[in-house]
């Protein structure tokens, strides 16, 4: 920090402690990042989209300041600059008394559009989509003011260059980038499309005098309405197509600044600020500061309102509560700009420029955590919204007792932090508090500390039926634990059962309809946060209701013994230990226990003696019948066939002999 910046900071701190603030105590010294007093008066400020730089309008030109240190990164010697705006794509728009400039973030001139006349005042604003730069000017003349509106493309092309009936006093794009509202010093509001065509116009001010000029404009967050602040101390609300919705009552002095966010419509008039709802009704008001309010601006989240007054800046909540203030600044303030993240704010004025931290460190922690063995591993996310590294102190308390006190240096953005704290068995409230120059933030979580559980799972299965699981879960903790029993098949969840685990052993039953095959099942007990409390695994072979069984026996009557072919096949994707049995006339004729792979069959041959037989063949698995078949088989003994053949032969011989005898007699 150079000498001039150091002098500025010292002077600021001394003044802060010497002046009592009407709204609360001055901010601590740590809330200021830097202050510079060697730039002269600051007319306007705008942050780069990444929050790394700040563009400042000074008498010498446009200065790009390092937002972390206040050092001058680049001085652009531009004559008579009036206003500046930095778009989200990195281009800088500047209006001077003689021209409109579009610059790169490195200061390179990308485009220049010369104005017809030298102007006295100018406003510039990029559309939120960064496609168009809107410029409004005011030129003082003996016969009255004149104004100009220009719409310039990001490449420098002139889309519109129109002369207006009066000087431009306010300029606002709708958040959707579709409409541009322009306020004139004669009290008229004009709304233009992106193509540069006038969509509608209305005279918001009722008196045709300078005292009823339109001084400020702001759009609703959804772009459906626009409000105008008048010199006659009235706020007027229009729909986006030009229909007047309401007018507020007389507020007092002219409405110098408006800003509409989810927190409401902030209207600054004289030394007071009033927040209105979308119907124009007053929600809350500040006391009179005693000095005119320069500007009001909500941050991007709508949870902090910056009020810039004569020589101080105060931040308030959407409910009107004062969050902090700068105390007295070295001299009059003229401009204020939030950082893109809302974690810091830049103030400019006759004293130069300064950056303050505005947001505490944001803490993100799981709502509840389950831990084992008395050691809690807390995974935190700490987000520093400021563009600079911030010193912070993190305190962790268990049931109101301080457990950890950690000093941190947090860079911009999110930081992951893992903390280990000791917690006895039971349920505990863990509170976290992070104190930084931007304020104090708090978060809390619930920690359940338990001793490990035990689970044993076994299965029963009948072929063709679902698999029945029984889980025995042992809880040695002195409390009932809400949990879920989750069953996985090949790593995929197939069933779950909510259970409350009382101290002791809890039994749980599940029935799973599984396809035939071998299933590698896993069983997990998980708490409401998903933490695994216990797990077990087992392998289950699932058999279908039947297997193919084939018997091939001779048809008709068979001479002698009969050979019967029997075959059984395994159609399932597993090794099947089947019992194959055959009974002939109720007598066990065969038994075997083959192990069959998928698609494999077992064939046997049974030889049955002569006679008529009833053959029963059965294939079974663990006592359950998978297939059964009955066949009738008949055979004739060989001796009987020989006897019949001999008798027939004797009969034939007798017949022939008798025939010869008759022939001899004749």
Specify the number of helices.
2
CATH class of the domain at 549-639: Mainly Beta
Mean pLDDT value: 88
CATH topology of the domain at 549-639: Immunoglobulin-like
Rg on CA atoms, Å? 46 Å
Strand order of the largest sheet: 34-40-39-36-37
Structural class: mainly beta
Gross morphology: elongated
End-to-end Cα distance, whole Å, is 162 Å
The poorly predicted ranges are 1-30
Secondary structure layout:
Layout: H1 3-18, E1 32-36, E2 44-47, E3 53-58, E4 61-66, E5 72-76, E6 81-86, E7 92-96, E8 99-103, E9 109-114, E10 121-126, E11 132-139, E12 146-153, E13 158-164, E14 168-173, E15 179-184, E16 188-193, E17 198-203, E18 214-219, E19 225-230, E20 235-239, E21 244-247, E22 255-261, E23 264-269, E24 272-276, E25 282-285, E26 295-298, E27 305-308, E28 313-316, E29 322-325, E30 333-338, E31 344-349, E32 352-357, E33 362-364, E34 368-372, E35 375-384, E36 390-398, E37 401-410, E38 413-422, E39 426-436, E40 439-450, E41 454-461, E42 467-475, E43 481-489, E44 492-501, E45 504-512, E46 517-526, E47 532-542, E48 549-552, E49 557-559, E50 562-569, E51 576-577, E52 579-584, E53 587-592, E54 595-596, E55 601-608, E56 611-621, E57 624-636, H2 638-665
């Amino acid at each position: 920090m150079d000498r001039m910046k150091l002098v500025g900071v010292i002077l600021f701190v001394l003044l802060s402690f010497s002046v009592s603030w009407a709204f609360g105590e001055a901010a601590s010294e740590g809330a200021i990042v830097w202050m510079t007093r060697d730039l002269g008066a600051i007319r306007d400020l705008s942050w780069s989209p990444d929050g790394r730089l700040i563009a400042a309008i000074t008498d010498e030109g446009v200065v790009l300041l390092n937002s972390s240190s206040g050092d001058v990164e680049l001085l652009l010697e531009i004559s008579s600059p009036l206003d500046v705006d930095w778009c989200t794509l990195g281009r800088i728009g500047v209006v001077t008394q003689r021209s409109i400039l579009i610059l790169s973030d490195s200061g390179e001139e990308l485009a220049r559009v010369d104005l017809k006349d030298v102007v006295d005042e100018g406003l510039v604003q990029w559309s939120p989509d960064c496609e168009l730069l809107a410029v409004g000017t005011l030129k003082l003349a003996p016969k009255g003011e004149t104004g100009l509106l220009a719409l310039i493309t990001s490449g420098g092309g002139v889309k519109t260059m129109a002369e207006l009936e009066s000087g431009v006093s306010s300029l606002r794009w709708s958040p959707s980038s579709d409409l541009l509202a322009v306020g004139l010093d004669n009290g008229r509001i004009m709304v233009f499309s992106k193509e540069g065509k006038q969509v509608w116009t209305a005279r918001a001010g009722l008196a045709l005098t300078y005292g009823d000029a339109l001084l400020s404009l702001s759009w609703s967050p959804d772009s459906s309405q626009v409000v105008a602040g008048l010199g006659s101390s009235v706020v007027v609300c229009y729909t986006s197509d030009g229909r007047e919705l309401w007018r507020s009552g007389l507020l007092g002095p002219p409405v110098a600044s408006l800003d509409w966010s989810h927190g409401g419509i902030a209207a600054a008039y004289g030394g007071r600020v009033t927040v209105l709802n979308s119907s124009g009704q007053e929600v809350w008001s500040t006391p009179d500061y005693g000095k005119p309010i320069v500007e009001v601006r909500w941050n991007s989240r709508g949870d902090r309102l910056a009020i810039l007054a004569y020589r101080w800046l105060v931040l308030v909540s959407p409910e009107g509560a004062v969050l902090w203030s700068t105390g007295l600044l070295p001299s009059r303030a003229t401009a204020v700009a939030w950082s893109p993240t809302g974690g810091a704010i830049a103030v400019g004025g006759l004293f130069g420029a300064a950056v303050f931290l505005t947001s505490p460190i944001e803490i993100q922690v799981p709502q509840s955590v389950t831990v084992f063995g008395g050691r809690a591993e807390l995974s935190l996310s700490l987000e520093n919204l400021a563009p600079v590294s911030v010193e912070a102190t993190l305190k962790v308390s268990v049931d109101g007792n301080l457990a950890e006190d950690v000093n941190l240096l947090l860079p911009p953005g999110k930081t992951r932090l893992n903390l280990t704290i000791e917690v006895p068995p039971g349920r505990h409230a863990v509170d976290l508090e992070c104190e930084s120059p931007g304020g104090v933030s708090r978060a809390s979580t619930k920690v359940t500390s338990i001793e490990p559980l035990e689970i044993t799972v076994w299965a029963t299965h009948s072929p063709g039926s679902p698999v029945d699981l029984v889980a025995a879960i042992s809880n040695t903790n002195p409390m009932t634990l809400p949990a879920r029993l989750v069953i996985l098949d090949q790593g995929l969840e197939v069933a779950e059962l909510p259970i409350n685990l009382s101290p002791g052993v809890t039994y749980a039953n599940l029935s799973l309809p599984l396809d035939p095959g071998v299933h590698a099942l896993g069983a997990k007990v998980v708490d409401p946060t998903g933490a695994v409390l216990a797990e077990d695994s087992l392998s289950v072979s699932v058999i279908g209701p039947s297997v193919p069984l084939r018997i091939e026996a001779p048809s008709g009557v068979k001479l002698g013994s009969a050979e019967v072919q029997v075959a059984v096949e395994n159609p399932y994707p597993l090794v099947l230990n089947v019992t194959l049995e055959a009974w002939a006339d109720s007598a066990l004729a065969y038994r075997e226990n083959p192990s069959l792979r998928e698609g494999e069959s077992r064939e046997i041959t049974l030889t049955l003696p002569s006679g008529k037989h009833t053959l029963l063949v059965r294939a079974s698995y663990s006592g359950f019948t998978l297939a059964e078949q009955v066949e009738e088989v008949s055979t004739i003994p060989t001796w009987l066939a020989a006897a019949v053949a001999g008798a027939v032969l004797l009969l034939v011989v007798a017949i022939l002999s008798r025939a010869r005898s008759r022939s001899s007699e004749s």
